[in-house]
TrEMBL record:
Family that this chain belongs to: Belongs to the PA-phosphatase related phosphoesterase family.
Cited Gene3D superfamilies: Phosphatidic acid phosphatase type 2/haloperoxidase
Residue ranges occupied by any Phosphatidic acid phosphatase type 2/haloperoxidase domain in the UniProt entry: 89-199
Protein name, UniProt field: Polyisoprenoid diphosphate/phosphate phosphohydrolase PLPP6
Keyword annotations from UniProtKB, A to Z: Endoplasmic reticulum, Hydrolase, Lipid metabolism, Membrane, Nucleus, Transmembrane, Transmembrane helix
Protein's organism: Campylorhamphus procurvoides
Transmembrane segments: 89-110, 152-172, 184-203
Catalytic activity: (2E,6E,10E)-geranylgeranyl phosphate + H2O = (2E,6E,10E)-geranylgeraniol + phosphate; 1,2-dihexadecanoyl-sn-glycero-3-phosphate + H2O = 1,2-dihexadecanoyl-sn-glycerol + phosphate; (2E,6E)-farnesyl phosphate + H2O = (2E,6E)-farnesol + phosphate; (2E,6E)-farnesyl diphosphate + H2O = (2E,6E)-farnesyl phosphate + phosphate + H(+)
UniProt-listed SMART domains: acidPPc
InterPro entries hit by this protein: PAP2/HPO, PAP2/HPO_sf
Enzyme class: hydrolase
GO biological process: lipid metabolic process
An example molecular function term from Gene Ontology annotations: sphingosine-1-phosphate phosphatase activity
UniProt topology in membrane: Multi-pass membrane protein
Length: 215
């Protein structure tokens, strides 16, 4: 008797396309490299003694401190002397809120689990934080970095420190075992793009008086 035909999905597995092979290879490399770089994933890891410092860096890129700090700045900008920073503060608040929403939506859609070597002791998590893609800390680091460089007048050494902070926050996500490398890379691209969208759609300085009156 003739053999029954294989289901279509089994045929695809037996005859994978070039794109499928390439993506599977990249995924395997991503998982392997991320695990090798997770040197602070636990106390017994290669750089386990640096884990407390990495967790401090983790908190510095968390959304809650940035939202609370921005809201506090808005509450302190009710005087005429401080209204010059109102427009940038509202811009940063909108960007941070959009960042939280977009990261949560993408995580909920992709549902990529966190690395198996991750220790779930993160600072203030919600339901979608059990997923890995993309890195919210990386998106926030890129967004905050662009905002600071764009709206604050800083000396060159301080501008370099801001960029280094964004890079260190992003790298620490892999070192702590929280994310894979592709999670962080996509997060940086997403954060950069989100700030561009918010900056493009934001009110012009000509509309600022109405904004001040509303606030």
């Amino acid at each position: 008797a003739a053999a029954a035909p294989l289901p279509e999905e089994d045929c695809m597995k037996l005859n994978p396309s070039f794109v499928g092979i390439a993506l599977s290879s990249l995924l395997a490399i991503d998982l392997w490299a991320s695990k090798r770089l997770g040197v602070c994933a636990g106390e017994g890891s290669a750089w386990g003694s640096a884990r407390p410092l990495m967790k401090v860096i983790e908190v510095s890129g968390h959304g809650i401190p940035w939202l609370l700090g921005t809201f506090y700045g808005l509450c302190q900008s009710d005087s005429s002397a401080a209204r010059g920073v109102l427009n940038p503060l509202l811009l940063s608040l909108l960007a941070l809120l959009l960042d939280l929403v977009m990261v949560a939506v993408v995580k909920g859609l992709v549902k990529r689990p966190r690395p198996t070597h991750n220790k779930m002791d993160m600072f203030v998590t919600i339901s979608v934080d059990k997923y890995s893609f993309p890195s919210g800390h990386a998106t926030r680091a890129a967004l905050v970095c662009r905002f600071v460089l764009r709206h604050l007048v800083l000396a060159v050494p301080l501008r370099v420190l801001v960029v280094l902070w964004a890079l260190i926050v992003s790298i620490s996500r892999v070192m702590l075992g929280r994310h894979n490398m592709t999670d962080v890379l996509f997060g940086l691209v997403l954060g950069y793009a989100l700030y561009s969208v918010v900056e493009h759609c934001w009110l012009s300085p000509l509309n600022a008086p109405a904004l001040f009156a509303f606030w």
